[in-house]
Amino acid sequence: MVVDFDKDKKDDVITVIYQSEYELHSAKKYLIIYLSSKNKIFSIDFDLFNGVFVIPLRYKNDVLDFLVYQEGTGVYGHGLKLRFNQKGKEIQLIGYDYSYRTPGGHCYKTYNLLTGNYTVTNDYYNIQTGKTEIENFKGYKKPAGKILINMFSHKLFDDLSSVGKEFERD
Q: What is the pTM of this model?
């Protein structure tokens, strides 16, 4: 994908690459972002998500949005929303989504890292009514600060995944 991600009126390149010496399902995968304003390549190693399949990248309203799913399960999904922070001249994580299957349904969480607002949506089969039901919860957790692409780690995404945990169903 070619867009002006850093708003310098020059093309930037955003793509996903795979190590070619491995089969697709076991290949290491990276998100690569070339920023013309910095003449530098930034990358996200998808091993942070324990091996993944990537849903195609989307770019809209200056936000790069993509989903990654843990390989072999299709159960655990991570959605990242990245934007170039004009003030700090860095790539910033501004939103994080996390979803997974539960024994009786599905849980979907979304966390806006600019406002601190999050929602948790559970859908589950109610054995008493014989119907699938949906429950929504909203909350607020003040973000710890700006999360930049160079701060990505397993611990960071474990912490982000736990936001709203009190509303999850087992």
A: 0.90
